[in-house]
Amino acid sequence: MKQGVIWRTLYRLASPQLFYRTSGRCLPWLTVVTCLLFAYGLLGALVLAPPDYQQGDAFRIIYLHVPAAFLSLSIYTTMAFCAVLSLVWRIKLADLVLKNAAPLGAWITLLALVSGSVWGKPMWGTYWIWDARLTSELLLLFLYLGVIALNRALGTRVQANRALAIVVLIGFVDIPIIHYSVQWWNTLHQGASLSLLAKPKIAPSMLYPLLAMIAAFMGFFVTSLLARVRTDLLWVEKRSKWVTALVRE
User: Fold this and answer.
1) Has residue 8 been placed in a domain?
2) How far apart, in Å, are the Cα atoms of 131 and each of 62, 120, 189?
3) Are 38 and 64 in contact (CB under 8 A)?
4) Number of domains the chain contains
5) How far apart are CA 43 and CA 38, in angstroms?
6) CATH (domain of 201)
7) pTM of the predicted model, to two decimals?
8) pLDDT tens-place string over residues 208-245
9) Which residues contact 73 (CB under 8 A, 6 or more apart)?
10) Half-sphere exposure (CA, 13 Å, Cβ side) for 91?
11) Which range marks the domain in which residue 237 is found?
């Protein structure tokens, strides 16, 4: 009984009309919160956090690299979840989220790779090495670009959406490889700075700005994604009654 109520609620939330109106109310608040998080995160990263005892000020790149790397995995995980919703329950909104998340994921992954290379030069003496973590992250960028290219090639047919969802799910195998690559192989890349099950390895003065930047990056992604999906949704639903009524209003 409870499961039926939960699924009915999820289907209701996936309604294009309800999504458009709810997201429209949330966007201004999300934008403000994201800007505040960025302001505090950057202030803490560049001013409040002391230099690292080993890396000096070079460590400050983590306030850009760590959030970007974390978000690159989170975005693809979101796409994989939407792929399941699309294949199993035929939720139209899931297809739109999947397609619009891919370009954002590609840019964020590129940022993670570039910022990691900038950090690698003073630490490793080179911008790039075919390390397991770096190589699997580069593969993730190619997966994002492949999804974008496939989406443009296939169009918006139902069969195209199913093919795109299947490709995303196949590519999801790279996510655990990226996450556990440091543990599975002998790699130059350092281990995780943060863990849900372990005590943080960095001082609070460095930790809190990092958490703020991660939250800010997540806020930026959600805000950008909602804006993109809302625009795409109006085009897809342009012949529906609720869009016609919205235009009249």
Assistant:
1) no
2) 18, 11, 7
3) no
4) 1
5) 8
6) 1.20.120
7) 0.92
8) 999 999 999 999 999 999 999 999 999 988 888 888 88
9) 140, 175, 178, 179
10) 22
11) 30-242
